[in-house]
Queue: 2 jobs
Job 1
Amino acid sequence: MSELVRLQRRDEIALIIADNPPVNALGQALRQGLLQAFQAAEADSRVRAVVLVCEGSTFFAGADIKEFGKPPVAPSLPEVIDVIEGCSKPSVAVIHGTALGGGLEVALGCHYRIARADARVGLPEVKLGLLPGAGGTQRLPRLAGVAKALEMILGGAPVEAGEACEYHIVDELFEGDLTDAGLAYARRLLQEGRGVRRSGEQTRGLEGTDNAALIAARHAEVVKRSPGLFSPLRCIAAVEAATRLPLAEGLERERELFLECLNSPQRAALVHTFFAERQAAKIADLPVDTRPREIRTAAVIGGGAMGVGIALCFANAGVPVKLLEVGDEALQRALQRARDTYATSVKRGSLSEAAMVQRLALIEGITDYAALADVDLVVEAVFEDMAVKQQVFERLDAVCKPGAILASNTSSLDLNAIAAFTRHPEDVVGLHFFSPANVMRLLEVVRGARTSHEVLASAMAIGRKLKKVAVVVGVCDGFVGNRMLFQYGREAEFLLEEGATPQQVDAALRNFGMAMGPFAVRDLAGLDIGQAIRKRQRAILPAHLEFPTVADRLCAAGMLGQKTGVGYYRYEPGNRTPLENPELAPMLAAASREKGIERRELEERYIVERTIYSLVNEGAKILEEGIAQRSSDIDLIYLNGYGFPAWRGGPMFYADSVGLDKVLATIRELHARCGEWWKPAPLLEKLAAEGRTFSGWQPDRAG
Ligand code: CAA
């Protein structure tokens, strides 16, 4: 038997104990061990029932994701589950922690399932670009019904044990020791004469509803909501097979569809993202014994949209937060904004009245800096101007207690200069939230030259507490996200001067998978915001670099985007649908004429390469400069803050999958034709020459 699985006999019950830390992922050795343990229990004539438990913090958390993409090694999980389900002695899965993916499928292969009351079960494969490939799409609908099965398989979110019980996924809840509960349940089965009960032979879930109609409705919804995603439609096809085929044939169909997903580039990208999120929490030079400071109370300076959004993040996480504004009127406006945001969530049904009241009670409006004396963390979210930041940080330095963490939400200013306004630059860190802060998952944690290890660890811990994807970045203009966005936005504008319309550029990038096109985004944010950044860039960048002029022309004409009803697009009052701005065409013509450009039709592929590769080239520079720790951190920033399609894995992973040699060849052509902006990043040249990838590159191994 494998070292990861132990088989013990307790009277007439075989107790199978799996132990594969940290999450009991079902890797080959564990599968082998389970297979042998069930076969041994079957062969042992003294055994009348089987109990399966896991050691550690959780039941099986699924297949071993690290094995995907490698040659399969027997026994496969479906083979193991076949043996478990086929066992002639009743078996009980004892679930604690989370039974996810292949883990829940193992449990569904057992004849009975009991779960600790705080456990959760789910089929999250869709988030990895997969479908449940070990019988989940066939067994779950038979137990829980097609509607619930589709909800769980397409949504990927786990359900609480209580709910799993209601839907016949779990038979009974228990409290206390796993083994005791499992053995007691198995003894009861034997006493009551309840024998083998195979999920695959159940039909209850498939009866009494119009399954074809349910499936058609979900199909239409997926086509509308997730265009471009590969696995959801295959999940539906697999469940559909369960409604009309006998188990064995349904399992075969599931396998075919699973393999299609497994071999798709989307699976590779989404698995990359899974590990990227876990990697991001690791900071190479942070001593392992670094302890984050405890954050019991927080404060936010500035009650604009960003400040209020940040305050909501704290309240949502149950952290009491003080919101400071300069005068009572501004404070009341800020508090009203908080109330309005929650009221909208209540109206939409995503928040209960009681939760709203609870969260609002955690937000205390203040106008006096003296009230900040006892807070553990302050986040400054005032106007993006160094003189204003200076005033704020000097005041914070004077009133805050020793050890309080002083964070700035600056999106582009020099954090080291801000830290220098205080006596404790080691307590200063950047917490760059993205708008709307209470919605967007990304948090750039900006590490200043003097930020202490403890404060950096605390900032990452706060990110986790606020349920953000926290990514460490170094200090430079725009940090990672906005520094790359500057390149992307500029190239998009150059495309307008070459001959494209905003509609064409936006459509090409939406077709690529971006959540929004760059011009729709600019109209939403307001063109005046970028204007200040463009001015600053022009002042600091070499004079020979050429800039596009369309945005400035629109600003000069007072066309600032949605807030003025016209920008790159025109908007009817109260309607956000972008319509053609008839005044733009002459502006584009003038911009092209002044630069001596003959306008031409641009191919979609060219539009995508010119914008996306500008991200990649800048990303390579960022990586080499050590502003980001690893390429997957850059990917996370674009996936969670800039609407990059999850199924492409982020710009750096995308470049890796295209092939860095090909990417470099295109960038060289652009360099020759479009000038200095396109100078290839040295790291890109090096990796392309060596046939390597960004993902495989580590700064310390760079050489
Ligand atoms: N395979 C391999 N490694 C896994 C894993 C898996 N299924 N699940 C987690 N891990 C690893 C993580 O990478 C992490 O490793 P490092 O410490 O080296 O970074 C470690 O286990 C701990 O994971 P978390 O940091 O995520 O721990 P957590 O306590 O916050 O969360 C969890 C635990 C809820 C189980 C979470 O890890 C999780 O959601 N895991 C993935 C579950 C999943 O997607 N299962 C489906 C797999 S696909 C499948 O099963 C296909 C099929 O049908 C056959």
Note: DSSP finds 28 helices and 19 strands in the chain.
Job 2
Amino acid sequence: MSQPALGERSLDLTDPATFVDNDVHGFWREVRAQRPVHWHEATDRHPGFWVVARYSDIQPLFHSEALSSARGNVLDVVLRGDDSAGGSMLAVTDPPRHRPLRNLMWSAFTPRVLGEVVEQIRQRTDRLVSAVVELDEFDFAAEIADQVPINTICDLLSVPVEDRPELLQWNKMALSSDRADSSELDAISARNEIVLYFMELAQERRDDPGEDVISMLATTEVEGRLLTVEELAVNCYSLILGGDETSRVSAICAVLALIENPEQWRALRTGEVSVESAVEEVLRWSSPAMHLARTAIRDFDVDGTKVRSGDIVTLWTISANNDETVFEDPRRFTLSRSPNKHLSFGHGPHYCLGAFLGRSELNALLSALVARVGRMEQRGAPRPIFSNFLNGYESLPVHFESR
Ligand code: HEM
């Protein structure tokens, strides 16, 4: 199917269908060249906002004290007016509260806990890949990519196994959809379900603590007081929110890119390129979170453009990750790319708390593919995700030959 020519036309970045129906990389190339910082006009449903597209502008803005995350860090939420979790959930908390809260969350990611979780990731991924090799056809998203991230976070939080499928379903509804017609209301009610679920679990662990991460968060003070049950719940949710879909889409994107670039798959299988280097290119290439949103809390200047206090600012990391002034031939999938300072995990104070886990999941996937799989074949079109935040696909029909 040929893509519509973009010309001078602007795309509606608030509309999820925009990212499915257009040559998005062509659009960003043009934006970086012609209007790297520009105002996105208001639509009949949403106010206007700033769009920032170049790496050299975006990277420093991640550190800017003129920008706040407290009204939300995803465009859809900020456009609605406010994030109800602002000031409670780590990702949408500003200094000075952000630092002590982040330290508490960090202490849940100790080497001992992570070491065990990484080993579980490796075993789970290897088991899943072994089970699909030589099947006539299967959906890589459903059989493998859906299974690893949610179970990793649930292992971390000791969520009972029987509750996990429902959490996965809610989370899919909360962030994106494979249906173009799904409503914002579905997403909001799914988010509420997740928070309510974790409130109940947090209360149970506070009353009867165990060895798990929720119990630790429930019984440790931050700035002289325990977190409320609501704060505990939104921060548990933030681990799912941050770590499930992003990891999932990057895994699906990895397999698709390896199928479409057989010489890169060969280089990985023969050990010509390391798994670690391949993981970084997959992260750059997939850019799972296409943008991060902020709100200006004072006037400032970016690239000669005046941004006023109260304005919404969007930082398009998918564009930064393909900025030709930083990445040579950016639309080539090059597993050996070095340096590869992509912004897929963000930058600065909110840099992804789960970056190590995200990398470990991709590392486990690529290692299992190298160990078990020979030829990979695509068996149909992947189904795209309708979202202006998440980049990628919901399904990917494939066949794996054994090695
Ligand atoms: C923050 C991406 C995996 C938990 C972020 C941010 C990005 C990101 C871009 C910055 C948000 C901002 O600046 O507003 C990703 C990607 C992942 C991934 C691409 C996988 C490929 C994970 C995992 C977890 C996680 C596995 C948890 C287990 C978080 C949390 C934050 C965060 C809690 C907020 C940190 C803060 O505000 O201090 N992530 N993430 N992420 N991520 Fe991830």
Note: The pocket of protoporphyrin IX containing FE is lined by residues 69, 73, 90-91, 102, 153, 238-239, 242-243, 246-247, 250, 288-289, 292, 344-346, 350, 352-354, 357-358 (CB under 6 Å).
